Amino acid sequence: MLLRRLHGAIYRRSLDYALLAVAPRTRRCLHDAAGGGTSHDHARKPVDLVSQGKLTHDSYQEKVASELENLLRRLEQYEMEMEDYHTRLSIWENSREKQRRRLLVEEAEDKQRDGVWIDEKRGFLDKLVMRRRRIIEPGVGKWVSYLNREKKLDTLVGQRPVAPIAPKGLYLYGNVGSGKTMLMDMFYGATEGVIKHRRRFHFHEAMLEIHDHMHDVWKRRDDEKSVQSSAFSWISSLPFDEKIKEWLIGEEKYKQETQQKHILLAVADKFLVDRQANKTGASILCFDEIQTIDVFAVVALSGILSRLLNTGTVLVSTSNKAPEDLNQDGMQRDIFLEFLSKLDENCNKILVGTEKDYRRLIPTEGSSQVHYFWPLTSETRSMYEATWHDITSEIGGNIIAVTIPVMFGRSIEIPQSCNGVARLDFEYLCGRPVGAADYIAIARNYHTIFISDIPAMSMKIRDKARRFITLVDELYNHHCRLICLASSSIDDLFQGTEEGPLFDLESFQFETEAEGTRLRRDVLAEGNVGAGPSTTGLVSMLSGQEEMFAFRRAISRLIEMQTPLYLERVQHVHPSFRQQGPALASTSAVSQSAPSV
Q1: Using CA atoms, how far apart are residues 4 and 592, in angstroms rounded to an integer?
Q2: Could you tell me the pTM of the whole model?
Q3: CA 33, CA 587: separation in Å to the nearest integer?
Q4: 204, 23 in Cβ contact below 8 A?
């Protein structure tokens, strides 16, 4: 059953990926095998399709698929074990808190009965007398009281329940277009109906989520510093003098400060929880494109992922680099090495080693739809305008300017919006201090995005180029339809201009504080438009190899986004299409022979 489920997911996902070198005449047959045919077709093994020439054999992907099948089989039992563990953990936590408050009340009763408590305003002689009366002072005394209380709780309630042993996850790394994300997404899709608690994040989305949780933790800590905080409401109704209540509140604050000393641990404990339903954290986390582009990413990912692995979360992740190569600049080395050790203990590392970019092999024959117009001429601009007119007329509704919410209380204006279709230009999207938070908001709200006047990238506009890469990443991750008007073909988009090449490692090495622009890493990490830290050398923050990989990934994704297999799935994957119905699938683009990419 599990094998069938994963195989079914493989076939369905392969429809929009170049793992299948499919001729147009066989596309219908593959659709049937992916779920549109009989149950017998649905259950056939991949080797049948390989022998028929419908699947391209790849030994690296075959190994990963086998590992994922084994993991999926083990996860079903592990999910049940984790459900039982979280039930026992919740009972233990509630019982411990109940007993802790009982111990506090007993101590308060003793103080009330003796008529003594600590008064910070007393002089030295008074405090000396208090010591002789065996009343413990604040500071060290609070720490001793806290430890004694915890020891008593261990005796009364018992030790914290032990989590079940988690199956090892997978860390997939390899070249652009080698199938890492496809394989991870196949696996994530196959867990539906098997794993209740699961989450999938792309790097940008995860970093923004981390910032959002950090903001919540800081805000909660500020709120809890107030005596009127709801965290202390249970104290107000107790029959004690005000001095005794102040002492109780002080003990509560000390407990909170002790337990929340490390903010990343507090964030990790809330990171995978469904905040609306307040449900248990995920048993499985799929994390696409792990990167360490700056110090914050190194520290945050190391701390949070280590905590999740410690508490039983199974990690399936992708990256362009092996774990040991993620932090070649040695940022926060000790913290990172601890993370590597935890990753090695909990994940199997697998190289998806093919040199092919399978996205380039997706067939485009027979397609009359063009979504990438170039170069910038009056003819291509007219065709671009005609496409906008056809799609908005088909969808219906007025073309208006709207403002959509972003994260962190910000918003972004969409100058031209029409029922899930947005129109913007390159400068508006990439020439201003915006970033991943804005692009995610756009991708979630619009299934079709028109972007005009995209230039060839060069060193002169390298900050805009990085923002454009982030934009492409998010539109691709949310499976949006992208229609472009650009100055050059996709393959030439990142090759530079007469002003110089886009990638020039020698120039990168001597970048200094004189650069006054906000770089991609600042925007995506901070999620705001405030002034970011200056750079004293980009190589210390973002290696040349990482940058080149990002360019190749953007090209590869832009190519796939023009293919019929990608476009056919937009209406099934993007939430805007599901909300507005299947009629949108009939929208057409300008008919023209496909330009070279």
Answers
A1: 41
A2: 0.71
A3: 27
A4: no
